[in-house]
Design brief:
The protein has 257 residues and is α/β, with parallel strands linked by helices. It has a single domain, classed as 4-Layer Sandwich (Metallo-beta-lactamase, Chain A), CATH 3.60.15.10. It is built from 9 helices and 14 strands. The chain has a 6-stranded mixed beta sheet with strand order 1-2-3-4-5-6, covered by helices on one side. The protein has a 6-stranded mixed beta sheet with strand order 7-8-9-10-13-14. A hairpin with an 8-residue loop joins strand 9 and strand 10. The radius of gyration is 18 Å and the shape is globular. The protein starts with a strand and ends with a helix. Bound molecules: zinc ion and fe (iii) ion. Zinc ion binds next to loops. The site of fe (iii) ion has 6 residues, from helix 2.
């Protein structure tokens, strides 16, 4: 399974999964259709699936046009998003699986950013492979999505599920927000040397226009404050030990950052 990252709009990423042998492809969160169609033409592949993480227009905006071009494709999304994702045909719940090429993806129900948000995790099938996590606007590199339709407690539970995945999982999040996320992270976890080093690396990458997505889950566990509610540093900042309280306090600070 090959994964192509396509930058669209101001800071979104669309991901195209493809199977070069079968000449088929799937797309995660097509914000817009045309760049996806261009890439499919380039690799001469037929689109068979859209995997949506949630209903926001910068994630489903391309659905309609893609379905028009490939009437046989299947549109997947969360069960709770019924009525909110254009052309949705499959209504996924926690524990469901989706198939693409030789890989099988596990569905996680991760409400918080929206009440219906889901994530797709494709475990490695061979030792040299990485796991691939498509988490939409739940976890970002160095940050997390805003709580539009959920509570801190829900988001802690959702991110807690993703945090249990192996360190060598690539995190394919939907936005290039990393530099600003890490700037904020330093204000709440400034003595974290892994974070300091990551900030320098990301600063350099962004100066050269290099994408910082995907990141690795192992690195998120060490440096992303929204996966670190159980560390002393963040509990101290939040003046609390209770996970949802720590998370909620840090999220509130980020909202005002
Ligand atoms: Zn969103
Ligand atoms: Fe988004």
């Amino acid at each position: 399974m090959k994964i192509q990252r396509i930058p669209v709009l101001s800071d979104n990423y669309v991901f195209v999964l493809s199977d070069p042998q079968q000449k088929v492809a799937a797309v995660v969160d097509p914000a817009v259709a045309q760049p996806v169609l261009d890439y499919l033409a380039e690799i001469d592949a037929r689109l068979i699936a859209i995997f949506n993480t949630h209903h926001h227009s910068d994630h489903v905006g391309g659905n309609k046009q893609l379905v028009k071009h490939f009437p046989d494709l299947c549109v997947y999304g969360g069960a709770e998003d019924r009525g909110r994702i254009p052309h949705q045909q499959v209504f996924l719940e926690e524990g469901d699986t989706v198939q693409f090429a030789d890989r099988s993806g596990q569905v996680f129900f991760v409400p918080g950013h929206t009440r219906a948000h889901i994530a797709y995790y494709f475990p490695p099938t061979a030792s040299e492979e990485t796991g691939e996590l498509f988490c939409g606007d739940t976890v970002f590199a160095g940050g997390c999505g805003r709580l539009f339709e959920g509570t801190p407690a829900q988001m802690v539970e959702s991110i807690g599920k993703l945090r249990q995945l192996p360190d060598n999982t690539r995190v394919w999040c939907a936005h290039e927000y990393t530099l600003n996320n890490l700037k904020f992270a330093l204000t709440v976890d400034g003595n974290n040397t892994d974070l300091q080093n990551r900030y320098r690396e990301v600063q350099q990458a962004r100066r050269q226009g290099i994408a910082t997505v995907p990141s690795l889950l192992g690195i998120e566990k060490q440096t992303n404050p929204f996966l670190r509610w159980d560390t002393l540093a963040l509990q101290t900042v939040a003046q609390n030990k209770e996970p949802a309280r720590v998370f909620g306090r840090i999220r509130g600070m980020k909202d005002r950052f």
